[in-house]
């Protein structure tokens, strides 16, 4: 087991003080109605007041190797986190009075405005179990399961609260399984991975949720000569789709959906 305190600075890109503000007039939006442009001001920018990420984490693990290439294990973990970075889409007031530009803006509302804030006082705790077993025939399998419980923490920008969020990218559960064959000249592995619902940020006070996601990948290689081998892989055999929504109380607030399809790769490796 181990106990550690961790501190790290925010990314420079998140700390940047630069801003970008875009204005769309009613006339411009009407002329391009097919693109669904919304009249008004929108923008993005960093947050120069981001605080350093801080964490106190502890873990305890035990493993038992009952034969060659075979083991079972259990790990417990607890982590307290302060000042984790949360992507935000919010409304902000900007004062452009006296600024030179195409539009005499004065005091304006920028909506939407994309930036980042700090989440405070988050806790992540849970357990991970795994088993791996290698048969004498060259076949084997591996499986692990992680349970992670987190709370929702206040998210602030310049001392103003914009909502609550759990740790970004943290799923309540995640598990991975693999079956494989490893021979003298031929190897193949099929892997199944599933991750529970995760939060990616806040949009107008609503958490941005990524739906549970699962995927199957297959990899294989064959050695033809001592220095020559062929490789092949199928990624996302199940043709899984990544879906993001606003809030998790209904499926009607779809934010976006992305699909990269089933992908095939092949290669030749030669060692000189």
List the helices and strands and how they pair.
Blueprint: E1 2-8, H1 12-15, E2 19-24, H2 26-31, E3 40-45, E4 53-67, E5 70-82, E6 84-96, E7 106-119, E8 122-134, E9 139-150, E10 153-157, E11 160-165, E12 173-182, E13 186-195, E14 198-203, E15 206-210, E16 213-225, E17 228-235, E18 242-246, E19 254-258, E20 263-270
Parallel strand pairs: 3-7, 6-14
Antiparallel strand pairs: 1-4, 2-3, 4-5, 5-8, 6-7, 7-10, 8-9, 9-12, 10-11, 12-13, 13-16, 14-15, 15-18, 16-17, 17-20, 18-19
What does this structure look like?
With 272 residues, the protein is mainly beta. It has a single domain, classed as TonB-dependent receptor, beta-barrel domain (Maltoporin, Chain A), CATH 2.40.170.20. The chain is 4% helix and 66% strand. It has two helices and 20 strands. The strands form two sheets. It has a ten-stranded antiparallel sheet, with no helix packed on it. β4 and β5 form a beta hairpin. The radius of gyration is 25 Å and the shape is globular.
Structure at a glance:
The chain is mainly β and 272 residues long. It is 4% helix and 66% strand.
Feature tags:
single chain; 66% strand; mainly beta; 272 residues; 2 helices; Maltoporin, Chain A; ten-stranded mixed sheet; globular
Helix content percent band: under 10%
- CATH topology assignment: Maltoporin, Chain A
For the secondary structure, the number of strands is: 20
Number of spatially distinct domains: 1
In what range is the share of β-strand residues? over 45%
What radius of gyration results from the CA coordinates?
25 Å
